Amino acid sequence: MATREYIDITKGPDRPTLFDAYETQFDGPRAMHPTFAGMFNADLEDGSKRGAEAVTFDAEIVTCNHADNSGSHIAVTAIARGGRFDGRAMTFVYDTKARTACVEVVSR
């Protein structure tokens, strides 16, 4: 059984796309769900790690705020849409310049 599951995001949307997705979240058919890609990992109870697995998921952006004064670090709350994480809420700080983040996966 895994004690910690997380995704190292290695590819995601740029800053304007992220904010556009947030602004259109209630626009029905116009709502945007940007795609994130990365590696899913798990730390196991015995201290070992499960092998990394490539994952891709779309995200419904629920909140989007500046995390600091840099303008490139954005605190994001999202709900995964599609794939193995469908319906799971995720909160993470996303670097819009490097397009990276580490997302802790919360159990359903």
Descriptive overview:
- This protein is mostly beta strands and 108 residues long.
- The chain has one domain.
- The chain is 8% helix and 54% strand.
- It has one helix and six strands; from the N terminus they run βαβββββ.
- It has one helix at residues 15-23, and strands at residues 2-11, 35-44, 49-66, 73-81, 89-95, 101-104.
- It has a six-stranded antiparallel beta sheet with strand order 5-4-3-2-1-6.
- β2 (35-44) and β3 form a beta hairpin.
- The longest helix is centred in the N-terminal third of the chain and has 9 residues, at 15-23.
- It starts with a strand and ends with a strand.
- The relative contact order is 0.25.
- The mean pLDDT is 87.
Gist?
8% of the residues lie in helices and 54% in strands. With 108 residues, the protein is mainly beta.
How many helical stretches? 1
Q: Mean pLDDT score, rounded? A: 87
Kindly, what is the distance between the CA atoms of the first and last residues, rounded to a whole number of angstroms? 15 Å
Helix content: under 10%
Strand order of the largest sheet: 5-4-3-2-1-6
Count of domain modules: 1
Low-confidence stretches: none
| Overall geometry | globular
User: How do the helices and strands follow one another from N- to C-terminus?
Assistant: EHEEEEE
Structural class call reads mainly beta
**Strands, total number:** 6
Which labels suit this protein?
108 residues, 1 helix, 6 strands
Per-chain topology:
Blueprint: E1 2-11, H1 15-23, E2 35-44, E3 49-66, E4 73-81, E5 89-95, E6 101-104
Antiparallel strand pairs: 1-2, 1-6, 2-3, 3-4, 4-5
